Amino acid sequence: MSLQVGIIGLPNVGKSTLFNALTQADAAVAAYPFTTIDPNRGVAAVPDRRLETLARLVGPEQVTPATVEFVDIAGLVRGAHKGEGLGNRFLAHIREVDAVAVVTRCFADPDVAHIDGSLDPVRDLEVLDLELALADLETVQRRLEKTRATAKAHPKEVKGELALLEELEERLQRGEQAAPWAKEGEAQAALARELFLLTAKPRLYVANVDEEELPDGGEGAAAVMRRAEAEGVPGVVLCAQLEADLAGWPADEAAEYRAGVGLDSSGLETLVWAGYRTLDLISFFTLVGGKILRAWSVRRGATAPEAAGRVHTDMQRGFIRAEVIDWETLVKAGGWSAARERGLVRTEGREYLVQDGDVCLFRFSP
Ligand SMILES: Nc1nc2c(ncn2[C@@H]2O[C@H](COP(=O)(O)OP(=O)(O)OP(=O)(O)O)[C@@H](O)[C@H]2O)c(=O)[nH]1
Ligand SMILES: [Mg+2]
Fold first, then answer.
1. Tens digit of pLDDT for each residue in 305-324?
2. How far, in Å, from the CA of 227 to the mean position of ligand 2?
């Protein structure tokens, strides 16, 4: 199963517009809130210059990029944790994703209703954070009840967990997020995962700005970017509407238009990369019979058999060894056979941790 980035935010901020641009899908977009009810799912190709360079070297018949899955989720409003708006459903869908892209409305357009009547992305983020934190607080308190009950019979076994939960409860009550707490130790991280805490999900921020304010965005976008920086997470400024419009254009014309508004690459490319980093993914490449070149994504720290399993489960089960070379070394050597003749292709076993940019040939017994 591939990892997913959930697109979340208040209603009517451009989440579905962005989703369509990313995945070339055709999800419903409208100038009124709660257009999206059930989540839309789709994949976006991960732009990768290394793959392009490799393709020029080997001239394959087919080139397939790695992908990231995006899930466009219903908008959230005040009171969502109590089931207001589409509250419960919204929250359940966020629980399932591996990371979230928080979209903020920084575009003015008076034709598009703002759920709170005025443009203020910082206030919007506060609404969102509060709802997520309150939902987490409920989760933690439910768990605390159970743990306290267990503690009556087996106080020693749950002493550690109880202390962790009490600390977290207090911090959520103060309006903090679970993310900093979850980073304090392995026990905290494990508990955050077990409880599917919403405010502990890896995050990135998107400022959806007016086209006229590209490339940097205005004051609102600057505030969102400061927030991203303070949390040490990626922040992306883009115009979802423009990206959606340009998605249907020929590549060279779109590039020319982008240059005209001061953009050197597509906001979507930047966003997909940010999502990739947030999920802590790396890419490796495979080349089958010199014909099919493909990029794959795995979690950083995956072993060679785990990476083989991304390609095919049989390859993981029957894994014997991997022949590996870094993509740049391969390019410099001029090709796989030349690299092998010069002893540049290494043989790696089951324990090998695949590195970002590795080109791998997996040997397995079917
Ligand atoms: N001017 C402008 N309008 C935009 C932009 N992005 C989205 N919109 C408009 O904003 C409205 C809402 O867009 P959606 O993509 O449906 O928003 P959403 O966040 O998915 O909304 P819900 O599903 O209802 O929560 C639509 O009328 C879009 O055309 C933008 O960058 N600029
Ligand atoms: Mg929508």
1. 999 999 999 999 999 999 99
2. 24
